[in-house]
Design a protein that fits this description.
By secondary structure, the protein is of the alpha/beta class. A 6-stranded mixed β-sheet has the order 2-3-4-1-5-6.
């Protein structure tokens, strides 16, 4: 007798309906390979665990709001061979999340800052952390808009509570009055509680120049720098323009002649 009609409502009631996706296949496998009852039960439960893990991973990726699905496996370390690969891979272990410290990824445009930041976020999701990727402008504009709809506290709480907050393009635009206060409040609330990754075209000593209130800026940066790791990228852009096209484009070679420099404690 086919057990599926009787099992379906019971599995749905127990919120185990995902087992139905592989039940017939596993049942045939059990008959052919002469599984014991315990082996069969373990197999279908492992299938359900794998399905739920993948579902949580996909959901976490959507919530992270990455600009691109960048991973370290896709990052070309050979393009700039002087990059401190050991530091990047160590950070990908996500130990810094247990330390509750920040990571700075600093360098000129196109040197891979956003890629590395998102790849570290991707690694954090793999080990079960919640991640949110945003830009400085987007984060502060959303906080300002939240005030107008009386949802500021809820939105601020989300920024404060997420395991890893990635703020891209810090200092690309100078902060306006009140924006520097919002930025400070986010940093202060996360200080020694959660980890933050910040990418910037500016070197760290220049960050205070982005704040209209220099005293507030110094206090904010002091919290960010406490125990932080720094990845410094230098060299030509990954987005460097190609040379002019010729009648024989197949003879052109892409230019990959950049260098990047190390990483250190900030």
């Amino acid at each position: 007798m086919n057990p599926m009609p009787e099992l379906t409502p019971m599995l749905k009631q127990l919120r185990l309906s995902g087992i139905l996706d592989s039940l017939e296949t596993r049942n045939r496998q059990a008959i052919e390979e002469k599984f014991s009852h315990m082996d069969f039960l373990a197999t279908i439960l492992l299938d359900e665990i794998a399905r739920r893990t993948q579902k949580r991973f996909a959901s976490a990726l959507r919530r992270a709001n990455f600009r691109n699905q960048k991973t370290l496996e896709e990052f070309d370390f050979t393009f700039n061979p002087n990059i401190n690969r050991a530091l990047v891979l160590d950070l990908a272990s996500c130990r810094f999340l247990q330390e509750k410290v920040c990571v700075f990824v600093v360098g000129p445009c196109g040197t891979g800052k956003s890629h590395i930041a998102q790849a570290l976020g991707h690694a954090a999701i793999r080990v079960g952390h919640d991640v949110l990727f945003t830009t400085q402008s987007k984060m502060l504009n959303q906080l300002q808009a939240a005030r107008a709809t009386n949802s500021y506290d809820r939105h601020f709480a989300k920024l404060a509570a997420v395991d890893l907050l990635i703020i891209d393009d810090f200092g690309l635009k100078p902060l306006k009055t009140s924006q520097d206060e919002d930025f400070h409040e986010v940093v202060a609330e996360r200080y020694e509680r959660k980890s933050t990754i910040v990418t910037s075209n500016l070197d760290i000593p220049e960050w205070v120049d982005a704040f209209p209130n220099r005293i507030l800026g110094a206090a904010t940066i002091d919290r960010l720098r406490h125990g932080a790791y720094k990845i410094l990228l230098e060299g030509k852009s990954y987005r460097s323009p190609q040379g002019p096209k010729t009648p024989k484009p197949t003879t052109l070679k892409s230019e990959k002649n950049a260098t990047e420099k190390g990483g250190e404690k900030a």
